[in-house]
Design a protein that fits this description.
The protein is an alpha+beta fold. It has six helices and 16 strands.
Length: 334
């Protein structure tokens, strides 16, 4: 295992893009040959080695055995802890890998309450992929609460038998996807509030949220920034339950902001996020650490509107995001 200063923790999010056991069908007709699976396994471990993260939130795990197989070949995580949210091959889910002990964890599949608009209940009660909540012990007296999420994509939810080339049906399908993602965002914010209120430890939320940092759905999750003229006592209440985007913290500290984690039809987007509570924000005088540096591993992404090249199926179609947290006190390592 690599060694670094014992006051720095690196946290990352990694969309694995359909991590499935070889010669096993997923989405009805797709599968990896043994050769393609071996390439995927090698590529994931190559990325993990370069990322060198202590805590990694994964998305798009179909089989827990596949993730265990990948990690078992990586000496950097020989003694690491891992939990997966029920990856049994029925669909993609999330997981967490940590060099620190994971002392408690839970899988959240259903909404705390159904979203209602003027008496009309939105017909969604479950996350499209479960949310993973975990307690990570980073030192004798300090722990983190980490949430890993993967919200509904922008891909249209079409009615059965609908024409996939009909512009009106596509518009309706995208609206349905947005409704589900918005309902998921509201449910996740409710779950986060249960942890953010009256706490004495940092909270980190990460994952593929399938929208940009300034989108309504993503801002629902992070919470609202208080108005500048608001009285200080009210500002403190807002700050206490606000999650700060590591991307924005990095942008404020640098003269250059080049951040994208996904390319679709020539659009460079930031869909993969890491957010931290105020205990890890430099401006907070009572912080226990701060976001020091954010790195995006996106060299493998290709703009297919400009290039004839294609991203191989065994690579991810998302970038990986790694945040370095500079802690005030030393942290215990394996």
């Amino acid at each position: 295992m690599r060694r670094r200063k014992n006051d720095i923790i690196k946290v990352a999010t990694f969309n694995l893009y359909n991590l499935v056991l070889p010669e096993t069908r997923y989405y009805g007709r797709r599968s990896y040959t043994k050769e393609a699976y071996a390439y995927k396994k090698g590529w994931i471990n190559h990325q993990l080695k370069n990322m060198d993260a202590d805590i990694v939130g994964f998305q798009e795990i179909f089989h827990e055995e596949a993730l265990k197989d990948v990690i078992s070949a990586n000496s950097e995580y020989k003694d690491a802890h891992m939990v997966v949210a029920g990856a049994n091959g029925n669909g993609p889910t999330v997981g967490l890998l940590s060099r620190f002990p994971i002392t408690d964890w839970s899988i959240i599949s259903t909404f705390p309450e159904q979203l209602e608009v003027k008496g009309l209940k939105i017909p969604f009660t479950n996350f499209s992929r479960p949310v993973l909540k975990a307690r990570v012990q980073i030192s004798k007296n300090q722990h983190l609460i980490v949430f890993v999420a993967h919200l509904k994509s922008k891909r249209p939810m079409l009615s059965e038998g609908a024409d996939r080339e009909d512009p009106i049906e596509l518009a309706k399908g995208k609206a349905r996807s947005l409704l589900l993602r918005a309902a998921e965002a509201g449910a996740l914010r409710t779950i986060l509030m249960e942890t953010l209120q009256h706490r004495d430890h940092p909270v980190i939320a990460m994952g593929d949220l399938n929208d940009t940092g300034t989108s309504v759905t993503t801002q629902i999750i992070s919470g609202d920034t208080p108005w500048r003229q608001m009285p200080m006592d009210k500002k403190l209440k807002y700050w206490d339950v606000l999650l700060y985007h590591a991307k924005d913290i990095q942008a404020r500290q640098s003269f250059k902001d080049v951040y994208y984690t996904h390319i679709h039809n020539g659009h460079y987007e930031s869909l993969d996020h890491i957010m931290v509570s105020q205990e890890l924000v430099r401006e907070n005088p009572n912080r226990i650490g701060r976001v020091g540096f954010v790195k995006v591993f996106n060299d493998h992404l290709i703009d297919q509107t400009l290039s004839e090249d294609r991203v191989e199926s065994w690579k991810s179609d998302h970038a990986q995001v790694v945040v370095s947290l500079e802690m005030k006190d030393p942290v215990d390592r394996l």
